[in-house]
Prior knowledge:
Elements: E1 2-3, E2 9-10, H1 30-45, E3 50-52, E4 62-65, E5 78-89, E6 92-96, E7 106-110, E8 113-119, E9 125-131, H2 132-145, H3 156-178, H4 185-199
Antiparallel strand pairs: 1-2, 3-4, 4-5, 5-8, 6-7, 8-9
Amino acid sequence: MSNTSTGLRIVHYPHPALRHLSKPLRRVDAELVSMIQEMFELMYAHKGVGLAANQVDLPYRLFVANPEGDRQRKDQEFVFINPIISQPKGSADAEEGCLSIPGLYAHVKRPERVTITAFNLRGEEMNLELDGLFSRIVQHETDHLDGKLFVDRLSATGQMEARDALEEFSLVYTSRQERGEIPSDEDARKRLLELESLRT
């Protein structure tokens, strides 16, 4: 797991936050804005194009994205708060990975085009019709907010191929818990609920 100076880190499978169903945010404050900036930095550091709050152990319904994956392209930085996806069209199959399951890649079939409605940090509502990579990013990250992972969408064959890697992640995670390096699942869930009560 990766740490930053103020404590946010990308959590790895099977951390309970990755299965947490996020509730809509009711309040955005300076602390949350700071966390969002840190999420962007983590995303860039790990060469990602999207990062959901669940992935940094936060129970908030938001994610950040930059389809260019380039920290210099500030014009491509997007914050999606309380996103809702609608109007799926078409079908596309492409390879996906996840910063919370590093090193595992597999082909996932998703709608080719979607509409996403969400709020930005200024409280403005956005309605974007997306296709291609950006469409796939927002679907992948919104799945995170619903407690779903890309491996849940694999074919039966794909799930079998991913099984050994996921079991290895689980073994490493359990071992770290036993050594007291990371909290128990019960403590992790309790923390999520405490944080959730602050802003949802």
